[in-house]
């Protein structure tokens, strides 16, 4: 869904979720659950991450205990994993576009609230590691401050109350289905930024679904527009990745008729998690052939139910023969 539905009312304030929306929590969640489930002879499947996304910590723990038939109560499992999570909060990175969005709204005087299903103490600790975030929000609400967490609308209604803005004039930005359900139940406009790959078709109740915060067009919601786009392209800070060219899967480049290359993601999964799926422009270098302009796609292969992103560059050059080996992208 690329266009927002007809606006009902001017947006006067923005309410943001934290985990999965502003913070890239998924990678750390996956790593921690892998470690803890191994203790019980179980293997965490990241493709089931949607079962816990957007839930309160206790609800998420209950889902894991049920799905993996763990020999304990949700309370005991939550108590077991919480210290490990607390140790990792300082390592959670901002989602692509999160700092850009917060700084932009703050710079234009748009009131913002942070509304998370996590306890308030956890929320404040997480944002402590991100400069300027705490002072950017006029209100910060934790799940332990309301009677019912998401998907109940309670937390968003409380955020609107603290902002002193009518709920219908609020824009909610959320990554999870419980959060989207809560925002719509509160009578608010909702933009979905799904954090779980290949589940965007489930977010139809949102007013708009976007790939990442970098794709957010605030002017659709009568808010000040970003001014950093150049002819339909968003400049980003340069980043680099390299590795061996491997034989691909699914639609081969020869079938497509274009010089595409599949790059091994081994050792780069953390780096890829910092960049949204989409199309990138840059340069690709081959040690024995030179440097070429390229367009690169990052995302999930549509032919396989893979949990990790893949990289496929398209070199803007006519090659007379196949090539494999080292590859460098900037």
Automatic annotation (TrEMBL):
InterPro entries: HAD-like_sf, HAD-SF_hydro_IA, HAD_sf, PGP-like_dom2, Riboflavin_kinase, Riboflavin_kinase_bac/euk, Riboflavin_kinase_dom_sf
Stored Pfam families: Flavokinase (PF01687), Hydrolase (PF00702)
Top-tier EC class: transferase
EC number: 2.7.1.26
Ranges that cross the membrane: none
Alphabetized UniProt keyword annotations: ATP-binding, Flavoprotein, FMN, Nucleotide-binding, Transferase
NCBIfam families cross-referenced by the UniProt entry: HAD-SF-IA-v3
The protein, known as: riboflavin kinase
Organism encoding this protein: Coffea arabica (Arabian coffee)
């Amino acid at each position: 869904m690329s266009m927002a539905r007809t606006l009902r009312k001017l947006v006067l304030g923005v309410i943001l979720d934290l985990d999965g929306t502003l913070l890239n929590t998924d990678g750390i969640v996956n790593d921690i659950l892998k470690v803890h489930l191994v203790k019980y002879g179980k293997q965490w499947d990241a493709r089931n991450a949607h079962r816990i996304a957007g839930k309160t910590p206790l609800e998420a723990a209950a889902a894991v205990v049920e799905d993996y038939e763990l020999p304990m109560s949700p309370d005991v499992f939550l108590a077991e994993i919480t210290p490990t999570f607390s140790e990792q909060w300082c390592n959670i990175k901002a989602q692509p576009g999160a700092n850009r969005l917060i700084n932009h709204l703050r710079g234009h005087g748009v009131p913002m609230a942070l509304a998370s299903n996590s306890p308030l103490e956890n929320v404040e600790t997480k944002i402590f590691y991100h400069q300027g975030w705490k002072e950017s929000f006029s209100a910060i609400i934790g799940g332990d401050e309301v009677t019912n967490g998401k998907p109940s609308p309670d937390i968003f209604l409380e955020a609107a109350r603290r902002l002193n803005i009518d709920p219908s004039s609020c824009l909610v930005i959320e990554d999870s289905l419980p959060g989207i359900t809560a925002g719509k139940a509160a009578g608010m406009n909702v933009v979905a930024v799904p954090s779980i790959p290949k589940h965007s078709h489930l977010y139809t109740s949102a007013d708009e679904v976007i790939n990442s915060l970098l794709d957010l067009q605030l002017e659709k919601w009568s808010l000040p527009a970003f001014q950093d786009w150049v002819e339909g392209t968003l400049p980003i800070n340069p980043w680099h990745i390299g590795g061996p060219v491997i034989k691909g899967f699914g639609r081969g480049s020869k079938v497509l008729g274009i010089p595409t290359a599949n790059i091994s993601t081994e050792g780069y999964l953390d780096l890829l998690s910092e960049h949204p799926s989409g199309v990138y422009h840059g340069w690709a270098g081959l040690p024995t052939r030179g440097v070429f302009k390229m367009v690169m796609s990052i995302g999930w292969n549509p032919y396989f139910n893979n949990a990790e992103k893949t990289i496929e560059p398209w070199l803007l050059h006519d090659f007379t023969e196949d090539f494999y080996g080292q590859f460098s992208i900037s």
